[in-house]
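Try it yourself: sequence plus coenzyme A, in.
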Amino acid sequence: MIQMVPIDTIADDAVEQLLDRAFGRDRHSRTAYRLREGTQAITGLSFALVEDDALLGSIQCWPVQVDGDDGSVWPLVLVGPVAIVPERQQEGLGRRLMEAALAAAEGSPPLTLIGDPEYYGRFFGFDAAPTALWRLPGPVERRRLLARGANVPALPGVLGPRRHALA
Ligand SMILES: CC(C)(COP(=O)(O)OP(=O)(O)OC[C@H]1O[C@@H](n2cnc3c(N)ncnc32)[C@H](O)[C@@H]1OP(=O)(O)O)[C@@H](O)C(=O)NCCC(=O)NCCS
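Structure, out:
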């Protein structure tokens, strides 16, 4: 039986191996990794799917913020990576993880992620329009910088880690 568990019940090494398989070992150079530097995954928003002893998938969420050019500070939650082991993709497991994180994030700051709009827009209501004026600490395809929620700060500013945030 497939079970969803808090990700901190899974060994770090197992999660890292899963992410290497889903994204490749060069994944650490991605801009998304700059966004979470110095922070810890948010415990209540990060999950794993396991079947017997096998890890099938994971989702992690991180505290980030937009520092507006006008001096305002806007906390957000960075969603991802979302990863399913290659041999179990297309079975609805990614959707299950996303839905769990979205439900747990009710009442949290708005969500952002870097990912395919064809997936995250179509199924989960993420949109690139409100992020158009954000600057990031690395290259990003603008169409893949997505956000979701009523209070996304659609203003000029810098998206970066929310250090010292409570995990
Ligand atoms: C992307 C990923 C998390 C989706 O999880 P999954 O369990 O395979 O997907 P689900 O079974 O929940 O959903 C399947 C649907 O999503 C669609 N889909 C999956 N990845 C997609 C993508 N990158 N772009 C567009 N659609 C996508 C499938 O076509 C399918 O649509 P259908 O129902 O119309 O056939 C998983 O495939 C994965 O780990 N991929 C490699 C890592 C990755 O790219 N992660 C996302 C970036 S953070």
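One thing you can check immediately is this: Residues 22-23, 80-84, 89-95, 115-116, 118-119 surround coenzyme A (CB under 6 Å).
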